Amino acid sequence: MNENHFGDRVRQQLNLGLRMDDAILRRLRTGRELALERRRVANTAPIAALADNVLGRLGMPETLLPRVLLPLMLLVVGAFAINSWQQAQLAHEIEEIDAAVLTSDLPIDAYLDKGFDAWLKRSSQ
């Protein structure tokens, strides 16, 4: 018989309206309140454990470095590397466009003409 089944049987017996002594009722009430209080403490314990694992013990610099500063430094270095790579890609694309414009047979004024863009669209279709 598991705890839930036993609790259900006790509840059923209590609901039948058995006459019990006041001392027994007080002990049952006290036991129930104690069990509920333990249940509340057990439910909040994982939250406290998680906060302790994330933050570590306050005032201990040896736990501050691996848990907070090292990931923060890695994040900053990673962001800087991604930004540098994107800037290099953008510069490379601009270089390719400039090289294509400068090596083509058309004069630069043709690219600035608004009708030239329309002519390119019509001729490509």
**How far apart lie the N and C ends?**
81 Å
Structural class: mainly alpha
* Whole-angstrom Rg: 38 Å
Shape: elongated
* Tally of distinct domains: 2
Low-confidence stretches: none
Number of strands: 0
N-to-C SSE series? HHHHH
Helix content: over 70%
Largest sheet: none
What would you call the quaternary organization? single chain
Mean pLDDT: 78
Percentage of residues in DSSP E strands: under 5%
Separate helix tally: 5
Helix-strand layout with pairing:
Elements lengths: L2 H13 L6 H34 L5 H43 L4 H5 L1 H11 L1
Can you tell me about this structure?
- It is built from five helices and no strands.
- It has 125 residues and is mostly helical.
- The mean pLDDT is 78.
- Helices cover 85% and strands 0% of the residues.
- It is elongated.
- The protein folds into two domains: 1-55; 61-125.
Tag the structure with descriptive keywords.
125 residues, 5 helices, mainly alpha
How would you summarize what this structure contains?
The protein is mainly α and 125 residues long.
